[in-house]
């Protein structure tokens, strides 16, 4: 979600793919860290009771996220994390942009077309860029037709971030180099270097 938020703040018009259910919680409650409050409550109350408190607070602070295309799992956020390792998403401003329509929530992608994507429901949309599988774990080796020895270097506009096996430092360096390369190509080819009309599809790993 943060990827879409950053894109929106810099003038793009992102659409965010959400295939699965996801718990979205406010980053803070009553001025305190949501996770900090959860950890304190877990010392006094059972997990499911804490989950009910968190979900009630989230409903008050954020509203019904299901109406925005972000359906919640049936299992509570803390219990789900304990069972599967899936961490709740903390909202840092994305929901406000979803509510105003600046960020669109879309369903699963069936295939990538020449100018955009075709969704599972049959609809097609055009996009200027696709950011795929933003998350903590990569499944790239399982679907690539060819081996992945050195990463993509911008061939056909395709880049990869975080495959240098240097952790967050390597991912940061990759992102900066890619941003510079995209900016160079954009300013070389675009008559107007403004990104205000760029549409981006962000596929978050929910």
From TrEMBL:
Its cofactor is FAD. The lineage of its organism: Eukaryota, Viridiplantae, Streptophyta, Embryophyta, Tracheophyta. It is an enzyme of class 1 (oxidoreductase). Keywords: FAD, Flavoprotein, Monooxygenase, Oxidoreductase, Pyruvate. GO terms for molecular function: flavin adenine dinucleotide binding; indole-3-pyruvate monooxygenase activity; N,N-dimethylaniline monooxygenase activity; NADP binding. The gene is YUC4_2. This is Flavin-containing monooxygenase. Belongs to the FMO family. It catalyses: indole-3-pyruvate + NADPH + O2 + H(+) = (indol-3-yl)acetate + CO2 + NADP(+) + H2O. It comes from the Eukaryota. Its EC number is 1.-.-.-.
């Amino acid at each position: 979600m943060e990827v879409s938020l950053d894109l929106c703040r810099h003038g793009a018009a992102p659409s965010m793919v959400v295939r699965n259910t996801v718990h979205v919680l406010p980053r803070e409650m009553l001025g305190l860290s949501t996770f900090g409050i959860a950890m304190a409550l877990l010392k006094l109350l059972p997990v499911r009771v804490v989950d009910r408190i968190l979900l009630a607070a989230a409903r008050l602070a954020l509203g019904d996220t299901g109406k925005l295309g972000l359906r919640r799992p049936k299992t509570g956020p803390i219990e789900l994390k304990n069972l599967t390792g899936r961490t709740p998403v903390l909202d840092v401003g994305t929901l406000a942009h979803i509510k105003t329509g600046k960020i669109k929530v879309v369903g699963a992608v069936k295939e990538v077309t020449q100018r955009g994507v075709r969704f599972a429901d049959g609809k097609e949309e055009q996009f200027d860029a696709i950011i795929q599988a933003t998350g903590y774990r990569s499944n790239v080796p399982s679907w690539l037709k060819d081996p992945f020895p050195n990463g993509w270097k911008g061939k056909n506009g395709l880049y990869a971030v975080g495959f240098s096996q240097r952790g967050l430092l390597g991912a940061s360096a990759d992102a900066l180099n890619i941003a510079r390369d995209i900016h160079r190509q954009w300013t070389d080819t675009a008559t107007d270097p403004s990104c205000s009309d760029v549409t981006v599809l962000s596929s978050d790993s929910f």
